[in-house]
Every structure is written in C-alpha cells, then in structure tokens.
Specification:
The structure is a homodimer. By secondary structure, the first copy, chain A, is mainly alpha-helical. Chain A has six helices and three strands; from the N terminus they run αβααββααα. In chain A, β2 and β3 form a beta hairpin. At the A-B interface, α4, α5 and α6 of A face α4, α5 and α6 of B. Chain B binds a DNA duplex through α1 and α3.
Chain lengths: 128, 128
DNA sequence: TACCTTCAACCACAGAGGTAGTAGAGAATG
DNA sequence: CATTCTCTACTACCTCTGTGGTTGAAGGTA
C-alpha cells in the first residue's frame, strides 16, 4: 500500500519515534508537553492505529512493555503531507509563497537557502 | 468566531463560489468535473454545513432555489490552511521547501517571484 | 505471599467529514 | 387542473479522530 495519511496527533507521535528512536508508549507520552498532554491511553490508542496503518511496528518487548519503532520515514510522511497540502492549491506554489511572505514566515535567508538547494538539485540531475 | 477550518470538499465548494460569485447549489454541483462528481445532495449537505460555519450565506431566492454567497474570503481561508499546514513543521518553512525542490514543484522562476514579493513587502512596511 | 503499580488489550463514545436517500413544497408545462 | 420536474429540508449511516475508561495480566516490593 502507499504512504498512509497521518493526522496531526499521529504525526506528533511519529515525531517522538523519529527523534528519540525506539520508544515505549510511556516514553512517547512523556514527550508531550505537560500542557495539553493527552491521556496515556489516548497515546496508546493512536500507537495501535499507527501500527494498523503500518507506520509503526513492535521492535521488542522489555518486561511487559512493548517498544515501538517507526517504519515510515519522516521524509516520506512529510512528502505525503506536502503533496496533500499543495493539491489544495492545484499544485501551484505561488499563492502559498505569497501568504508566507505576508505573514513574515518566509525571509530573505530562506530564499537564499532555497536557491542553494535548487542549484544542488539541478546539478545532481543534469551534471555538466 | 475565528476562521473556520474547511475540509477539502468544502474548499472545492468555496472555490466555485469564489470564482463564479453567487451560486445556487445546482451551479456549484455542475462545477465539479464529471468524473468523481459527488451527488447533488452531497453538495447540498456541505453547503448547509458551510452555512452553519458561517463561511457562506444566503444571498437571495430565485424561484424556489437559494443563491449562496461566500462570506469567507479566499485569502482568509488560504491563510488559515497555510498556518495549519506549517504548524506541522513547527512553523519552519525550510523542510517544506526542500520537499518542493525535490519533487520539482519549486522552480527558479518561483524563487525569483518570491524575491520580488518579499522586496515589495519589506518596502511597504519599512519605507525609506 | 499479598499488595501495589504498570502495561496491553479492549471498549465506548462523540464530533467531523463524506456520501446519499426521501419527503414534500413550489414551479413549470401540457 | 394534473403531471412532472426541481429544490429544500431532514435523516441516515459509515469512517476517521480524538479522547479516555476498564480489565486483567505481569512485574516489582514489603
């Protein structure tokens, strides 16, 4: 199957797995900031659903607790999100850029960085 | 209340209103490409929900059919979407840009355009 | 061993979104 | 006027998310 769609909460859980590596539900739960932290069982439910979606798998068992591992890469999940998002704009990036600039999220630095990346990218596919 | 969150289908419906102006449910329905067009009543349901969310209002009645008008602007809805989306990335634009470049969505043209917009933007807020 | 803690597993439930059917009012037409 | 078409209004139903309670097994501890 293709890359599963992940909701916001699911992404937060994956984030814990991606940054901390293999984790128990308890560890994932603790990663949430105290303020607005969901119940332990909520995290548990989401981890189970992620497992059902194939985004996560059981790595091993320590004592009576399961340790999970992300099987879906952060990059793949992000790409999925980006594609999904841009489909709202017919795949056109320009309107999005306009909003980013107006809200001050996109700076000159970012643009410079983008140019560098683009150059690397094109050079890689069209080596002279 | 603040800007309501709109789903994909809801956005498609708003798109019809935004581009065609005031519309009846029938007209909105007809805007969908034949392939994968939802049932008339489905569109109706969504329009009602959009009305409940305050994104749309009844402009007038012609015969026995209602004509709707968007009360939420395309810009506001888009900004909402963009903010929502970037919150997945902690508000950082760079990882998104990387994906865009890798998938070929972001071209040199786009970057040039972005620079122009950014210049205009900064000049407007900090006129020398 | 008897108790306390910690998990996994399972269950429940509400809200949003997507999908659509049906009933009944009104308009249009022969 | 009677029939047919077209809309609105209402209802139903399924899936996905988010949320969290309950139960019972496993492990640790006095």
């Amino acid at each position: 199957m293709s890359i599963p769609k992940l909701s916001k909460l699911e992404m937060q859980i994956m984030d814990a797995l991606w940054t901390k590596g293999e984790c128990s539900v308890r560890e994932i739960h603790d990663e949430f900031p105290e303020k607005g932290r969901p119940a332990y069982t909520t995290v548990q439910t989401m981890v189970n659903r992620l497992e059902a979606k194939g985004a996560v798998e059981r790595a091993k068992k320590i004592g009576n607790s399961l340790i999970f591992r992300a099987t879906l890469s952060r990059t793949a999940a992000h790409r999925r999100l980006v594609d999904e998002f841009f489909s709202f704009f017919d795949g056109r990036v320009q309107p999005v850029i306009a909003h980013l600039i107006q809200s001050g999220k996109l700076t000159g630095e970012d643009i410079k960085e983008a140019q560098k990346l683009l150059k690397e990218h094109t050079e890689k596919r069209e080596p002279r």
